[in-house]
Structures are given as C-alpha cells and as structure tokens.
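Dear support,

Our group has been running a series of protein-ligand predictions, and this particular one with pyridoxal-5'-phosphate is the one our PI (initials K.S.) wants archived with full inputs and outputs. We had some confusion internally about which version of the output was final, so please treat the block below as the authoritative record. The input we submitted was:
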Amino acid sequence: MIPVGSPYPIRIDLFSDTITRPSGAMRQAMAHAEVGDEQKGEDPSTNELVALARELLGKEEAVFLPSGTMCNQISYALHCRPGDAILVDDNAHSLRHEETGAPALAGALFRPIKADRGVFSADQLTAALGPEGRSMARNAVLSIEQPSNLGGGTCWSLEGITSVTAVARAHQIKTHMDGARLLNAVVATGVSARDFCAPFDSVWLDLSKGLGAPLGAVLAGDADFISEAWRLKQRWGGSMRQSGIVAAAGTFALRNNVDRLADDHANARLLAELLAGHRNISIDPTTVQTNIVLFDLVDCPVTAPVLVERLLRKCGVRMGAFGPSTIRAVTHLDVDTAGVRLAAEALCELLDETYSMHVSKKELLT
Ligand SMILES: *Cc1c(COP(=O)(O)O)cnc(C)c1O
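Confirmed final output from the archive:
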C-alpha cells in the first residue's frame, strides 16, 4: 500500500507549493465564472484563460489541461515516435516523477543528461546525443525544466536556453519546456516569459503550484501542435465540460499572484540563511534562486526521512525527504515570513536535541 496523507496535524507546510489553497478572492472569481461546454470551445472562462496564456507565453495557440503531467505527456507523445529518445536532465520531473508516462504513452525512452542542479551546457547536450545508427534511438525531443524542481529551483539563463535549443535545432530535434514554475523563473531573473518560451516548440505552465489555483495547466505552441494536442486531450479523457470554474482560478492567479512570487523567493532565501548556520546542515544560501530550498544533512545521527517525520510529529512542520540525507522545503503563498522563521527554529532545535540525545547515548555505552 502507498501511504496517503499526513497522520499528524500540520502547522507550517513547506512540503510543496502544490498544497496552496484557493484564497477567498479566488473562490469569488470561481463562483462568478461564466461557464459552457469546454469540449465545444464554448466555455468563456476557459477561453479567457487560454487567450491570456497565449499572450503571456507568446505562442500562436494554447490549451487548458487538467495537470502539468498531461502537458508533458501530450507533448512527448506528439514529438516522439515509438522507439525515440527524450533528452532530459537526470533529475527532471518527467523522469523522476513521471517515469512510466513517456514509455507507456509515447513508446519513448529517456536519455538523461548529467546536469548541475538541473542545468546542462550545449557541450554536455552534444555529448549526450550519442552515435547515430539503426540500432540507436533517434533523439526526438530536448526537454528542459525551467526552473528545475529537483535542482533546487535553479533557473536556466536565457543564454543557456538559447545555446542548447540551437544544438537541438541543428539536429532536427524538437524542443519542449516543462515550465511548471516558469513564472518563478520570470520573477527571479527579470526575463519575460515570452523570451524564455520563444525557442521552444512546446511550453507549459502550472496554475496549481505557487500561483495558488486548485488545479490546471496551460500548454502552448503553434496552431498545428495545439490542434494535435487536442486529439490526445480528447483521447486520454482530458477534455472537460464547465471547466470555467477552475479556469477562472487560473486567470485570477495570472492577474494577481505573479508579482508576489518574489515574497516566496525572499522567504526561501531567508530559510536557507537561517539553516545555513547549523552544524548539521549544508546549504549555500546564494544557490537559492526561487522558492525551493534543497539542503543536506551532515553528521546527523538520523536519516532525512526519520528527521522529517519527527519534525512533523513534534513540531507540526512538514518538509520533504529526498533521499537519505537531503531535505526539500518549498515556500508559497500560504506560508509567511513568521512561519518560515518558526520552521527554521523548529528544525534547528530538533537537530540539536537529536544530536545531544545521540551523544549522551554514546557516552552511556562507552
Ligand atoms: C509539479 C510538476 C509537474 C507535474 O505537474 P502536475 O500539475 O502536478 O501534474 C511537472 N514538472 C515539474 C517540474 C513539476 O514541478
């Protein structure tokens, strides 16, 4: 059985920005949304969101989908034939958390590129292309993540994107951007979403992460690509009816919750700075660019999963364990600066307690 839900009450939730709940004002916008049949193109609120996304991302056409996962999977299935390869960083969400999607749905395999916090160079990409031949998978699509989730929220620079997409184009390889948190990268770097999206055949952004909408994502590309995307959306059961109820939340988020992402970034940096001083924690706060804080435990008597469980049980603070000694904390609109300070304090105190208990146990034994 796969465990579901937290068994303990949560006071401060830094597990993910997916846990954000629609605000009162967002719910008002949802309650008053005009709706129709989305499959027929007759839902005005969904059409409004799609038009807004087209403009924001600078693409010819866009489509509203239930999840970011579906955006990735539809794109891969359209860019690849069975037996093709998808070039991704070795920590990509589509590889680590959607591992079965592309093989099952597109018949494609992953060709992971060893990256630095989710980012790789044109030379690394070129080296990863490998030899051509009948027995080799054809490199069909380059997929990058902006910003990289498991890379600790690290942003690709516009130059980096320009250089890797140029290599892809030179090899007739399609380009895809997983922009689950694209607007975090936009706010952090000052580069426009349009500029980041321009070199890509397909791009998407998630409305349900730090933007605070309950669900949904928007996939964009040229009109032919989106028309083909609609075929798969229909086939896979992603076509909807009165989706305007949730699309209105997405529109509200794009109009009201983008600039405030800067607050989440400041809170993430603060959290990193507060944790960096602790002897059992290794993190360089200057690597924190957006709302994700990835840090390692050093000399800690317990593993990250054990510590994270204790933090939740004893302090009501939730973070995520990513491996035996790595922890991820994500800031978002439902946690304020005071909450971040409390979370850092709780974790540092818990580490001190864990460490001294361990040391005194050792003394008793020797
Ligand atoms: C969350 C996430 C996804 C999946 O999006 P869902 O809307 O949860 O399906 C894909 N890629 C990245 C980088 C993500 O963080």
